[in-house]
């Protein structure tokens, strides 16, 4: 119940890049997440051609899955390697361009135009750059955010969604004093206070 020693811990951008370089990416799943399949109806809510956001997207295969269903997918990921692996592993041609509003950031877009992945720090995004979204798939995202940045992350996410949007959030229930991760334990009470 107590997040104890995790509270002060930080995973730096450098450490994430290193995980990708070393292939230390146990969080990546080749199979689509069963909870997205299970709650797809909640995410879509009878709507089609949605704009769906993948915060801290890695190379999540669900992006391809939703794009193939006719939705438009936008992701953000700090590792360029992850972004490039996503496109190459799905044999998707893409183009690459700078993001004028964010210094050093690049946007990788599938040639078909329905998948756009921003390679930058998520905190550099805003709705004036990426627009607003009808749906969010947050798996391995809030739980990967450093505890000290949670409030900032939640405020950004609230800013990036349309009024009638659906936000699917996956967290993992465990005793944080017994297990080191997935990176951070987010208790239900905290989700309530972050998102209301
Ligand atoms: N959601 C993905 C990946 C989860 S792991 C999945 O389901 O597989 C978290 C990812 O977030 C890592 O790939 C890491 O490189 C990236 N990341 C961590 N902090 C970030 C930040 N501040 N901005 C953008 N990406 C970040």
UniProtKB/TrEMBL annotation:
<dbReference type="GO" id="GO:0005737">
    <property type="term" value="C:cytoplasm"/>
</dbReference>
<keyword id="KW-0808">Transferase</keyword>
<dbReference type="GO" id="GO:0008119">
    <property type="term" value="F:thiopurine S-methyltransferase activity"/>
</dbReference>
<keyword id="KW-0963">Cytoplasm</keyword>
<keyword id="KW-0489">Methyltransferase</keyword>
<dbReference type="GO" id="GO:0032259">
    <property type="term" value="P:methylation"/>
</dbReference>
<dbReference type="InterPro" id="IPR025835">
    <property type="entry name" value="Thiopurine_S-MeTrfase"/>
</dbReference>
<protein>
    <recommendedName>
        <fullName>thiopurine S-methyltransferase</fullName>
        <ecNumber>2.1.1.67</ecNumber>
    </recommendedName>
</protein>
<keyword id="KW-0949">S-adenosyl-L-methionine</keyword>
<dbReference type="InterPro" id="IPR029063">
    <property type="entry name" value="SAM-dependent_MTases_sf"/>
</dbReference>
<dbReference type="Pfam" id="PF05724">
    <property type="entry name" value="TPMT"/>
</dbReference>
<dbReference type="InterPro" id="IPR008854">
    <property type="entry name" value="TPMT"/>
</dbReference>
<comment type="similarity">
    <text>Belongs to the class I-like SAM-binding methyltransferase superfamily. TPMT family.</text>
</comment>
């Amino acid at each position: 119940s107590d997040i104890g020693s995790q509270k002060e811990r930080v995973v730096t951008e450098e450490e994430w890049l290193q995980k990708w370089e070393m292939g230390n990416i146990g969080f990546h799943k080749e199979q689509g997440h069963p909870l997205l399949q299970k709650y797809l109806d909640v995410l879509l809510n009878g709507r089609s051609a949605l704009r769906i956001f993948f915060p801290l997207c890695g190379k999540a295969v669900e992006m391809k899955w939703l794009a193939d269903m006719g939705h438009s997918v936008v992701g953000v990921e700090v590792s360029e390697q992850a972004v490039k692996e996503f496109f190459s592993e799905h044999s998707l041609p893409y183009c690459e361009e700078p993001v004028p509003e964010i210094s050093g950031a690049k946007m990788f877009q599938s040639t078909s135009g329905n998948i756009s992945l921003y390679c930058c720090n998520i905190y550099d995004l805003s709705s004036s750059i990426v627009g607003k979204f009808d749906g969010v798939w947050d798996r391995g995202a809030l739980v990967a955010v450093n505890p000290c940045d949670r409030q900032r992350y939640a405020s950004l996410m609230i800013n990036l969604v349309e009024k009638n949007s659906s936000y699917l959030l996956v967290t993992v229930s465990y005793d944080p004093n017994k297990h080191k991760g997935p990176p951070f334990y987010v208790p239900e009470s905290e989700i309530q206070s972050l998102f209301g």
